Amino acid sequence: MDLHDKKRKRKFCMTCNEEFSNRYFARHTCKKKPIHDQTSAASDQDVQTTNLSDTPSTSRATVDCFMETEETEACAASDLERNELSSNTESDCEGTVIDDELLEMIIQSSEGESTSDIETEDQETLYVQTILKLLFRWQSVFFVSDLALSFIVLLLKSVFYLCSFSSTFLDKLYRKFPSTVYQANNALHLKLDNFKKYVVCPKCFTLYEFCQCIQSVEGRNISKKCSKIVQPNHKLAHFRKPCGEILLNNVTVNGKTSLLARKTYCYKSLKESVHRLVKKRGFEELCNNWRNQSSSEDILSDVYNGNIWKDFNGRKYDFFTEQRNFGLMLNVDWFQPFKYSNYSVGAVYLSILNLPREERFKRNNIILVGIIPDCKTEPPTNTFLEPLVDELQEAWEGFYLYSYTSPSDPVKYRLALLCVGCDIPASRKLCGFLGHSATMGCNKCFKRFEGDIGQKNYGGFNLKEWVERDKDSHMKVVKEIMKCKTKSHREEIEKKNGIRYSVLLELDYFDPIAMTIIDPMHNLFLGTAKRMLTVWKDQKLLLPEHFDKIQEKISMIICPSDIRKLPQKFSSSYGSFNADQLKTGPLYFQFMHLKVFSLIII
Fold this sequence. Notes:
Layout: H1 3-7, E1 11-13, E2 18-20, H2 22-25, H3 44-53, H4 57-67, H5 72-81, H6 100-111, H7 123-142, H8 146-163, H9 168-176, H10 181-187, E3 195-200, E4 207-208, E5 214-217, E6 220-223, E7 248-253, E8 256-261, E9 264-268, H11 270-278, H12 283-287, H13 307-312, E10 325-335, E11 345-352, H14 357-360, E12 367-372, H15 382-397, E13 399-401, E14 411-420, H16 424-431, H17 471-482, H18 487-497, H19 520-538, H20 544-555, H21 570-573, H22 579-588, H23 590-601
Parallel strand pairs: 10-14
Antiparallel strand pairs: 1-2, 3-4, 3-9, 5-6, 7-8, 9-12, 10-11, 11-12, 13-14
């Protein structure tokens, strides 16, 4: 078998006895043979054998799904990408499987249509709902993914089918049991995460409401074009033209043509997320534990000992002096959710700094704000943060919510963004600085790094030449940038000062210089620690036999459960260590390195 056949596995249809590609398998139809009545006990086995081979398409998909486990992630990737397919490029996407049911779900949610309620009077429906409630409860307790849950649903569907020949009740149960997680949610009338969907312009990334993107022409709905003017202050008229990119695509499902967003940004209300947290038992008590902590002035043990927290605790703002006021930390990062698909998704999320450090970053305490769609490259973040900034401005004044401690009367809660904790590229985008490879690449001072890209000189540790940035001068430059009439003039000022406009500056209290933390993961662990090992190896200070001694010493140590053990073959694999492994090495195993290294020098 050649490499091409290995990459493109084919699925086997148990009814047609033929193999099909992934794309055609989801679309092809088989002639369904009738299920014969079981007239005698002697023919029961033959009837069951015939029925197993004549399984309906949903059951065949069930069996094939378990047979083709290696392809589920690729299918899930194509499902997510369906909402970005245009009608004129549909035939060019070989790996895409069109699911009419999922497309109908997306279209209905976009147009605000609601599905009809399902009556629950019969006994079989009650049994189905009970089983599904147990499954969803199991998923929420153990943080099981929807993909894993879909396997369980298909497995139960298959079990009910195999048992349906011996019981009329199980046959009815099989026919009513859902085949997908989406059908399971509809059976229980469950509302999924309450995300608000914005239409994203693929060119300039401007956000629109779905209703703002539709216009009626001669009784037919068509898509509007993006009206964003990128350079509104330009002297020449043709530079002040709107973007003009088509926002919606025509998609035909079951003969019905509908409009679907080319790119969708899912945003979850900050107010609703905070409401969910304050309704939890003991949440507000945990958020007030920091008030009872005592620490020395010269020891920085947590965010509560820093200047920003002290400024908001009465030194500059009377914010933490009042109860029910929460400080937030913002993070944005991109990742690839699927192994075999080049599809990068951005996640915007917040953590509450009032919580103790051991509770702060737990999954149930994280506030997911938005999901940025794949844009081929990492897009500017300003447009995606605009809904969040609007809510943060409202939260600074305060909004009233019911809580666990006050279930009958709403009480006032206030929120403030105190920290941006991202890696260097993301923090530069969020807070309005140029990248670390720029000449003015530092977001704390005006130190210049001369040289071309890849040849920057980061030397010169004369602290007197490191003039610190301040918010007043920063805002002055930003206002000058906003008044620029041409793109070249704007880029010239940005390059000179290392500053860009950020929508976070609309928050009056936000200081982009002081509230942007230094990235320790890429700077210390993936940077310094890995660099030192490389230098020692290149300079022949550490030879292969020395790495073997280090590995021998490390292998003798029994690590606690909360410490990640370093991989084997230390000498050949340290270059591919992740940040957690490089953190574990210097902090917990460094004395082994130094012991061997001291023996080498002696």
